[in-house]
Every structure is written in C-alpha cells, then in structure tokens.
TrEMBL record:
Location(s) in or outside the cell: Cell inner membrane
Keyword Translocase among UniProt keywords: no
Lineage summary: Bacteria, Pseudomonadati, Pseudomonadota, Gammaproteobacteria, Enterobacterales
Transmembrane domains' residue ranges: 12-33, 45-66, 78-101, 107-129, 150-166, 172-195
Main location: membrane
Name of the protein: MFS transporter
C-alpha cells in the first residue's frame, strides 16, 4: 500500500495524472482510427490492421530511445519533446480529416504519433518511480498503471458514443481528435507548471 502522503508529492501526482491523460488519448485514438479506417475509408479489417503497423512500430522505437534521451537531456525535457510532437501530430491529423486530405498523409503523421507515444510512457513511469523509495516501487508502479487503465477505459467510453451519435462519422472523428489533443495539452500544462516550480 502507498502511504497517503505520497499523493501530496506533486511529481508523483502529475505523473499518474499524465498517465491517465495519455491512455485516454491513446486508446481513444486507436478506437476512433479503427472506425475511421473501416467506415470512412472503406478499408477491410486486414488492411485497417496493417495501417496501424507503422504507428505501433514507431512506439517501440520511441521506447528504446526514451532512456538515451533522458540521460542526454532530462526526463522533464523528454516529456516536453514527446508531448510537443504528439500534440502537433494530432492537430495535423485533425486538419487532414477536416479538409479531406488523402489517407497516406494521416498514416505518415501517425509515425510521429507512435514515436512520441513511445517516448512518453517509459519516461512517465521513471518519473513516477523516482518519487518514492525502492520499497514502494511496486505499489507506485501499480498506482501509475491503474491510472493509465482508468484513463484508457474512459477514453474508449467517451470516444465510442461520439463516433455514433454525432451527425456523421467524420464529425465525430474530428471531435475525438480535438479531445485527444486537449488531453495532451493538459499534460503539457501540468508538465510546464511542475517544471517552473521545480526551477
């Protein structure tokens, strides 16, 4: 069990909040993209799955790069870099959806979405664990992952109805992208607030 006062630690609290916001964005986006590929672009299930491969492949590249970048710069700067790339890519995808830009532009932009996502998760995890003693690493990691799972569940629960109850799938997809961008922007603001206080 984590001691109650650990939640008063701003670094810990911001890290688990960012974890929840990230999964809200990530799993909500995956859900929305799968609908968009199949219903808007009329891709088959197989080709919709293949369309995700570059995106998910770059997640692994981001994971492997995160620790090296954190050692070269710092965890907080890696968070800034990852969040900036992520929000930029989401806004671009929103723009492409709004103005009916060809699908290949979205798929290309998803490479940056995947890479930045891969940067963020291990960095947020390390940031969370750095706030507690080694004896509490297991409990802190569990709290972080629980917050992420809650965020992911809420993301799918919110994005799903938006895709179905709006006037069109396209409009619902654009709203989903706007919400995903807002969640990353909130994380960026939290990061900025913490960084300013820290320094």
């Amino acid at each position: 069990m984590l001691p109650n006062d650990i939640f008063l630690n701003k670094t810990f609290f911001i890290s688990i909040l960012q974890g929840a916001l990230f999964n809200f964005m990530f799993y909500g986006l995956l859900f929305a993209l799968s609908f968009n590929f199949q219903l808007h672009y009329k891709l088959s299930s197989i080709f919709s799955g293949l369309a995700f491969l570059p995106f998910t492949g770059l997640v692994a590249v981001g994971n492997l790069s995160a620790s090296k970048l954190a050692m070269k710069f710092s965890r907080i700067h890696v968070l800034y870099i990852g969040q900036f790339i992520l929000i930029t890519s989401l806004i671009l995808i929103l723009f492409f959806a709004k103005f009916h830009i060809p699908l290949w532009c979205t798929l290309l932009t998803l490479l940056f979405t995947g890479f930045s996502s891969g940067l963020l998760v291990p960095t947020m995890t390390a940031q969370t664990l750095s706030t507690v003693s080694k004896e509490l690493h297991g409990a802190a990691s569990a709290a972080f992952n629980t917050s992420r799972q809650i965020g992911g569940a809420i993301g799918v629960a919110i994005f799903g109805p938006l895709l179905g109850v709006t006037a069109s799938l396209e409009k619902g997809f654009i709203i989903c992208l706007a919400l995903a961008s807002c969640s990353v922007f909130i994380s960026l603001l939290c990061n900025h607030f913490y960084f300013n206080k820290k320094n």
